[in-house]
Design goal:
The complex is a heterodimer of chains A (314) and B (311). Chain A has 314 residues and is mostly helical. Chain A is built from 15 helices and no strands. The longest helix of chain B has 36 residues. Classes of the chains: A mainly alpha (314), B mainly alpha (311).
Amino acid sequence: MIGDRRRADFEATLLRTADERGRDAGAALRRASLWRDALHRFTRNRAAVVAALAFLSMVAYVTLTPWLSSLDPYAVDFSIAYQSPSWDHPFGTDQFGRDLFVRTALGGRVSIGIGFAATIAIMGVGILYGAVSGFVGGWIDNGLMRFLDALYGLPYLPFAIITLAIFGTVNFWTMVVALTIASWFTTARVMRGQILTLKQNDYVRAARAVGARWHRVLFRHLLPNTLGVIIIFVFLELPGVVLGEAFLSFIGLGISPPKASWGTLAQEGYTAYQTYPYIILIPSLAIAWLILSAFFVADGLRDALDPKAKQKAA
Amino acid sequence: MLKFVIRRVLWTIPVLLLVILMTFLMMRQIGGNPFRTSERAVPPAIQANLERKFHVDQPWWKQYLYYTQGVFTLDFGPSLTLRNQSVNDIIKQRFPVSLKLGGLAMLWALVLGIPLGIIAALKQNTITDYATMAFVNAGYALPNFLIATLLIYVFAVRLKDQTGLPTNGWDDWRTWILPTIALGHAPMTIFARIVRGSMLETLQQDYVRTAKAKGLRWRRVVGLHVLRNSLIPAVTAAAPLLGYLITGSFIIETIFGIPGIGRYYVLAVFGRDYSVVLGVTVLLAGIIILANMVVDILYGYLDPRTRDTRT
């Protein structure tokens, strides 16, 4: 695939006249900025574009539907309980006759909201920890990394459960904290690696040589250059966090009714799966949709922001 | 190599101590006396005796030392809600069930995941590759409670007469099939992905080209050079996958009503049986730590270059 593209580029270059080439030579480079370059590469990656559209459409569905729909997601009406999907209720209704199209959107708001909040928190903690460890170095780095090694591979669910038990209640923010505590390690490790690699660069040494203080080096030269990795990691962390929230909700440690997340909706559907299997299917497929699209967006972003890694792998 | 092994084995001790300390401190934050009068009403004198016996009247760091001593002698203390049962009894009863389920699931993941990865890599960018990876990716994204429910719905409810599989329980081999598939699914997709990735990388290596160039038959190249070198990374994936299995077992055991440790953990959280929660968490963490150690040593043996970095 890449070979084809390269050959196409090459042939296009051959076709251009020497004249055109001469004009181009004098002009400023069109794709000079890293971000425009990345955007260009991203939009040429068909899988990534489709995934981005799928991701955005899911976000649009969960944000817009509750505003646009005239149905009350909390109105109980037993006369229309357990209706199969129809024109009036595209996803059917649950055991209380509540419309699942709107409720799935509301659940998505909670799930995606928790997902993004926890991801941002994870990134914050991870970046801080990793940056300190990688930047300071020495025995502090050693100690911090040994601590991470110790936590490596521990199952996150028990620790999230214990955190929730400490709080005593489950709501949006306790869930965010629990998921953050249970899953910030990977980000910290990756960030440290990034900082360590970037520290070797000549521009960092040059900045130091001309007398830049440590905070200028860190905030001006190191952290901005990790932005690409950070953006990729947001999309890599998000699926795990959304899934973790769904697991916790499914075993009964979710946000309390009548509010719901995709996990609690799936749990409600599970209680009636033998007769009404569509109820568990819909929120689960929504989770899968979000996870898959985020995953492919992350993939596309990696190829776009770090083309060197791709060449190495291919 | 011996030095590396000794270093790696000794390193697990502080790690274990740290993890016990963290879990212990977290559990303490939940608060409450382990011998709450709500569950076991006893006279004050006996209450005081109990507290002395289990060191509840001591400062926290002494309690931690006692607890750690208990853990290293494989004694996790008494259960808070079940009379006359210790955490050890509960683990002894339920852990073998979970171990069997986890083992079967891991087997399923290996037996299905590795061939899928190999096939996808050898047929890269063909319809076979795309179909395999679509299956793997879909399986990765679908939450395991959906996979479990669908399996039950299709094979134990709809096709009940043909398959004769039960919807829940853990008695004979018939009851093992569906939970194994449901639990092994996520690790299976991960194995397939890792094997495919490392196969593709190995196929690019010079020695593969050399082997091909000197006229070795393709089957032999793959069998002799590619497979051997690309299955090593799959070994490293095994320890993190244990985490997946444990997380998954909480849900799968709940759905299928399997009397394993994962289901009891969830019940213990709701029943506020915190010594069980603490004990099982420490046990699971200990297993992961030991698995990490074994994988690192194995990896150090297979690939000597990693010995320095993996202490």
